[in-house]
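Q: Here's a chain of 48 amino acids. Please give me its 3D structure as tokens.
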Amino acid sequence: MWSYVQNTVAPLFRWSDNLSQSQWFLVLVAVVVVGAVCLRGYGSRVTY
């Protein structure tokens, strides 16, 4: 189990170390947009 987590998480951390400031800004914008859509309630239960 631990080796699976290590093999999955370690490449993500290595990838995130290589991001520039502008790429981090794009990641932030994408996360905020996804969060806003989730909080807004677009989807099957929007009419409840």
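Q: Can you summarize the key feature?
A: The helical segments are 2-17, 21-40.
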